[in-house]
Every structure is written in structure tokens, then in C-alpha cells.
Model the fold of this input.
Amino acid sequence: MLSDYRTEIAAIYAELERRPLERTCLRRTECCQFHLTGKTPMLTRGEAEYAALGVRASGRKKLPPRDDGACPMLGRNGRCTIYTHRPFGCRTHFCAAAGGPYPRKHVADLIQRLEALDEQLGGDGPRPIQAAVADALKKI
Ligand code: SF4
Done:
């Protein structure tokens, strides 16, 4: 199952990249400052476990504590430390500089695939990124 979910998550993210929608993430990381945006990405289980693989690949076994309201995967250098493993919400977010949120009708099928995978993995729907990835790190 482990390799299956990786394949499906990678396929979903790759499909998103192929969609003919003008979006350009400039890695400004403003969306990673949850205390400023008031919005926290919500992750299905497959996304969380895939993100946890990114954390492991960056050489960490658990998330660093943060008391500044930013994402725990945001590096001290101001860069996302799991960029290639970042979750769906970080790819389709509300960042105006990147082009704004994706219209739901353009990604609804991909969201359905994420939700179906969540169910297969025994998930219980999307959860806030911090708790979802912290728990996933204990499993992988
Ligand atoms: S996972 Fe990366 S892109 Fe997403 S909020 Fe965290 S630091 Fe930002």
C-alpha cells in the first residue's frame, strides 16, 4: 500500500501541473505564514504521508517546534523544506501573487481522488497540516 499511495499522490500532483491554468508560485511563502493568512492547509492522509516522506528526506524525524504561527515545514531560510512533497492546498492556494485559487470545477476530480485515497488509507477527512504530518511521521 505504501508505494501505491505514493504513486497515486504523485500522479495527482503531476496531473495538476498539466492542467492549462496560469499559475506561478514564486515561493514568496506568504501563504506559509498561517498567523497572517488566517488559513491553514488541510491534508488528507495520503497528502500527509507524502509530506512526511519529504520531511524525512530533508533529514528530520519530527517537525521542529514553531511559536511564530508559520508552517513547521518552512525552513529558517524562508524556503519550504518539502517543496516537491508539498500538499495539494499549497499548490492550489489563495495566493494572489501566484494567480489566486484554482476554480474548484478545474480540480474537483483531483480532490475526489485525494478523498478516495484518504478513505482507502483509513483517514477521516482532511486535517490541519501540523497534526496531519506529525502523526504521519510516526507511521512511515
Ligand atoms: S508545506 Fe511548504 S509550501 Fe506548504 S505551507 Fe508548509 S512551508 Fe509552505
